[in-house]
Amino acid sequence: MKRCPTCHRTFTDQNLSFCTEDGTPLVNISEAQPTIGASSDGREDPAAPASDASAWKAPTYQPPSGYTPPGGGDKRRAWPWLLGITAVLVVGIVVIIGIMITAKILLPRTPIAPVNRNAPTNSTDSESNRNERADLNSNLHEDNSNQAGKNSNNEGDSSNAAPPTDKEQVLAQLTDLEQEWTVANLNADKKALAHILADDYAGSNNEGRTQGKADYIKTIERDTSVQKWDFEDLKLGLRGDRATLTGTVRLVIDNRDVAYHFTDKFVWRDGRWQATGSEVTLVQ
Asked: What is the CATH number assigned to the segment(s) 127-154+163-282?
């Protein structure tokens, strides 16, 4: 038998643990002990002495050991999730910054495209830029020398070849020759210039003074101030074994744009085109 210490009701159902009236945990009582203040149906007996009921002290109510107050568990478990999310965000930001810095360091530099034509004047430049352009011109010079050697080896076989008559073919050939000529000027490659210029070459230099082949090659000096160049508006005049090429060459010299209009004359001799004259005018 069990008793409710609050309302003093008794219960014979051993499966009950709490009072059905007020929810107070029930306490076991002896089967032989008379029920004080309650009738057989569980209701309080008005005839029973009140002093016996009031003398009994109910134990203090203690919640079950596994009891958790409503809403308390969620608050205790919320901060680990917030801490974890914050840590993930911080790590992600650090990784992204690290990738950006690594890409900035490892990103290869884009080389400056090769340029064209001889520079009109020498100007001051930083030592590092001069070294970089010297290496670039050295590579171009090597390619030009190899091509000149191939042409020299083939002269015996093509010395009697007839001049080409297709204008597109001749324009392509003279454009390539202008490129070789410019590289030879920048590198002061006298051997390549001796191959490009005809023996009867006569042209004006940047100062307007007429030069022959020997004077041209003797006075040429290496120029490292040109960063790049490009040909524009090339026009070809072709008559038999004679060709004239006109156009504009734009150069970048120490980060400044300079343009020159030129007229170059060529002759088909010994199975190849050779320069017989050149006039250059500064474009204002």
From this structure: 3.10.450.50
